Amino acid sequence: MPEVNPVGGSSQTSAVARSLLAREDFLKILISELSNQDPFAPMDNQRFMEQLASIQNLEAVSALTDGIRDLGRMQEMASAGSLIGKFVRGVSDSGESVEGIVQRVTVTDDKIRLIVNNQPVAIDSVSEMLYTLLS
After folding, report:
1. Are 16 and 63 found together in one domain?
2. Model-level pTM?
């Protein structure tokens, strides 16, 4: 069953781990196959080219996954930045209910946090956002 994450949350760690494990396992199998083949009956060129193409596809998909993850990260940071000066309600990192004007945005422990009343609030812990006019 796929993981379900809160809005703004991600399963980046598990996706990266699965991708890395699959790539490393594939490369280990290919290297093992190549180093254990019979020198008098080597793998035919077509099969070898198919395996090289598979490695290239795996690397391309991995790079695409990294790019999409980075794009999502930039989008999340832009969304958080747009909340500066806005009134929000949420739960602070210490578990307290917090409401007030977003003063700034920080990135700590690879997680985007809004600073509200000098308390860090993870962006996925915000429950309400209201428009506020700054004077």
Report:
1. yes
2. 0.55
